[in-house]
């Protein structure tokens, strides 16, 4: 059984964090009213669509065998890691600019205290939906 060098994977995660912080300065500058959550109108569902787009791009690059003109395959995978972290942040209700009283799909919750009641039920329905694809 081969030994896995976990240190390289941690280094990749650090690179992803650095990239995320750098890019966030372009997407949410101090002189703009745009918050991170505004980029994801359907919450996690929008983030999921972006990840699928990145996955399709990676698949296309791998299948073609061609060198990309712009973003490298490694950059594409790093973006997927960062978007996955955005999805977790959104699910926790802690993304910058996220409104209380809305679920992980940015829909109003039935909860009166602004919590994420009903998220599990919606997540199960969403999971079944993507399984049918």
Task: Name its key features.
mainly alpha, 56% helix, 133 residues, single chain
Radius of gyration: 17 Å
As residue ranges, the low-confidence spans are: 112-117
**Major sheet: size, sense and barrel closure?**
none
User: Could you give the order of the helices and strands?
Assistant: HHHH
Category by helix and strand content: mainly alpha
Whole-number tally of structural domains: 1
Q: How many alpha or pi helices?
A: 4
Nearest-integer average pLDDT = 86
Q: Report the span from N to C terminus.
A: 35 Å
What best-fitting shape do the alpha-carbon axes yield?
globular
* Share of residues in helices: 55-70%
Can you put this structure into words, describing what you see?
- The chain has about 130 residues and is mainly alpha-helical.
- It has one domain (about 5-110).
- The chain is about 55% helix and about 0% strand.
- Helix 1 (about 5-25) crosses helix 3 (about 75-90) and helix 2 (about 45-65) packs antiparallel against helix 3 (about 75-90).
Write the layout of secondary structure elements.
Elements: H1 6-27, H2 44-64, H3 73-91, H4 119-131
Helix pairs in contact: 1-3, 2-3
In brief:
The chain is mostly helical. Helix content is 56%, strand content 0%. The protein has one domain (6-108).
């Amino acid at each position: 059984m081969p030994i896995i060098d976990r240190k390289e994977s941690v280094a990749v995660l650090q690179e992803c964090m650095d990239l995320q912080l750098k890019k966030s300065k372009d997407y949410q500058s101090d002189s703009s009213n745009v918050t991170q959550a505004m980029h994801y109108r359907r919450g996690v569902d929008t983030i999921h669509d972006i990840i699928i787009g990145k996955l399709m791009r990676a698949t296309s690059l791998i299948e073609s065998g061609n060198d990309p003109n712009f973003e490298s395959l490694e950059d594409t995978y790093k973006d997927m890691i960062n978007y996955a972290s955005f999805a977790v942040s959104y699910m926790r209700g802690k993304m910058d600019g996220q409104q209380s009283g809305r679920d992980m799909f940015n829909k109003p919750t039935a909860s009166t205290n602004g919590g994420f009641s009903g998220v599990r039920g919606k997540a199960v329905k969403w999971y079944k939906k993507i399984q049918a694809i």
